[in-house]
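Students often ask why inverse folding is considered easier than folding. One informal answer: many sequences map to the same fold, so there is more than one right answer. In these notes we will look at a single instance of the problem. The structure comes first.
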C-alpha cells in the first residue's frame, strides 16, 4: 500500500510596516538572487525608484510586476516571475489562509498620519450616531487605537471586530471580506471607514445593513454615507433580469488567493438541478473581451466579488456573484441582500 505524499511546507511570509532598513536587513540575510517587486496602483509612478532602492540595498536583481495588482490575493505567480526566489509586495497585509508561492515580504506601508483629536471632532461635527463600528485599510490601522480613544472621550461607543481567518488584524478591511464588521453589525448603528478612496466603503456598504461614513485621515475629510439602497437595488435589478437565463458561464480564477473551484462545481450542480446549462470557464486575469461572442446568457463569477459589483457594466453579459446566482435560481430571496464574502 503506497504512502500518500507529504505536502511541501509552505514558503514563508514576512511582514514589515514600511519599506526601510528592517526589510533590507531581512532580505540581505536571506540572500535572494532575484526579487520580483509588486506595487499597487497608487505607487506605480514610483515603482522604478522603489526597485532601484531594493537593488541598491540588497544587491539582488529586481524586476517589477507590471500588471495591475488587486490585493494580497493576487501576488506574482510562478509563471509571471519564474526565476524570482523572493517577492516584495507593497501596500498589502498577508491573507493568513492563502499560501504564497515563494518567500514573500509584505510591506504594509503603514501611515501613522492623522490627528486623532481633530478627526474625532470632525466626526462629532458630522452628526454620526453614537454607537459606531470602526473599519480601516491596513495602511491606517496604527491610527485605530488613538482614534477610538478620542471618539470615546467625546461620548461615543466604538467597536472593532476581529473577523475570520482571511483577515490578519482586528478592524481590517479587505475588498472581499468584511467579517470583522459583520460580527458586530447588530451592536452598532453605523460604521466609520478610516482610509482613502471609495473601494472599501462601497464593499462595506454591500456587506452590512448599516450606514457607512468614510473618514480620510490624511485630508481630515468626512464623506457622506454610501447610498446602500441604491447599490443593492441595482444588483437586484440585474438578478431579476436573468432569472430566465438558460445558459450560464461559471468563472473560476486560477489565482491562488481567488480560486474557488469547489464553489464553482457546487454552483454548476445547482444550475443543472434547476434545468439550466452551466459551463466552467477558467482564467487568470479576467478581461471583458474574453467573454465576447460566446453563446452564454449570463455569468456567475467565483473570483473576486468586486469584479461583478464594481465592473459588471463592462461585461457583454450580466455578471453575478454566487449569492446573486442563487437568487436568480430562486434558491435565495432577494432580501436580505447577501455580500459574497470570501472566507
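Output (designed amino acids):
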Amino acid at each position: 500500500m503506497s504512502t500518500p505524499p507529504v505536502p511541501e511546507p509552505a514558503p514563508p511570509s514576512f511582514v514589515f510596516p514600511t519599506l526601510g532598513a528592517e526589510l533590507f536587513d531581512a532580505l540581505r540575510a536571506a540572500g535572494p538572487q532575484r526579487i520580483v517587486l509588486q506595487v499597487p496602483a497608487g505607487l506605480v509612478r514610483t515603482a522604478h525608484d522603489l526597485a532601484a532602492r531594493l537593488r541598491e540595498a540588497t544587491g539582488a536583481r529586481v524586476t517589477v510586476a507590471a500588471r495591475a495588482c488587486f490585493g494580497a490575493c493576487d501576488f506574482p505567480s510562478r509563471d509571471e516571475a519564474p526565476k524570482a526566489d523572493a517577492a516584495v509586495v507593497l501596500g498589502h497585509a498577508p491573507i493568513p489562509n492563502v499560501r504564497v508561492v515563494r518567500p514573500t515580504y509584505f510591506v504594509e506601508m503603514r501611515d501613522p498620519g492623522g490627528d486623532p483629536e481633530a478627526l474625532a471632532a470632525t466626526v462629532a461635527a458630522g452628526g454620526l450616531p453614537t454607537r459606531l463600528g470602526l473599519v480601516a485599510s491596513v495602511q491606517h490601522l496604527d491610527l485605530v487605537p488613538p482614534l477610538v480613544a478620542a471618539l470615546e472621550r467625546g461620548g461615543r461607543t466604538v467597536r472593532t471586530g476581529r473577523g475570520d481567518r482571511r483577515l490578519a488584524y482586528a478592524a481590517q478591511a479587505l475588498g472581499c471580506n468584511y467579517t470583522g464588521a459583520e460580527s458586530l453589525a447588530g451592536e452598532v448603528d453605523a460604521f466609520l471607514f478610516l482610509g482613502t478612496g471609495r473601494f472599501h466603503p462601497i464593499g462595506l456598504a454591500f456587506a452590512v445593513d448599516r450606514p457607512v461614513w468614510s473618514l480620510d485621515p490624511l485630508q481630515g475629510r468626512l464623506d457622506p454615507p454610501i447610498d446602500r439602497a441604491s447599490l443593492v437595488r441595482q444588483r437586484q435589478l440585474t438578478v431579476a433580469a436573468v432569472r430566465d437565463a438558460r445558459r450560464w458561464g461559471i468563472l473560476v480564477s486560477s489565482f491562488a488567493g481567488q480560486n474557488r473551484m469547489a464553489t464553482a462545481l457546487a454552483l454548476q450542480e445547482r444550475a443543472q438541478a434547476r434545468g439550466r446549462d452551466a459551463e466552467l470557464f477558467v482564467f487568470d486575469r479576467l478581461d471583458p473581451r474574453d467573454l465576447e461572442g460566446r453563446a452564454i446568457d449570463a455569468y456567475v463569477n467565483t473570483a473576486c466579488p468586486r469584479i461583478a459589483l464594481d465592473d459588471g457594466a463592462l461585461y457583454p453579459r450580466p455578471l453575478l456573484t454566487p449569492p446573486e446566482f442563487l437568487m436568480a435560481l430562486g434558491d435565495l430571496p432577494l432580501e436580505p441582500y447577501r455580500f459574497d464574502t470570501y472566507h
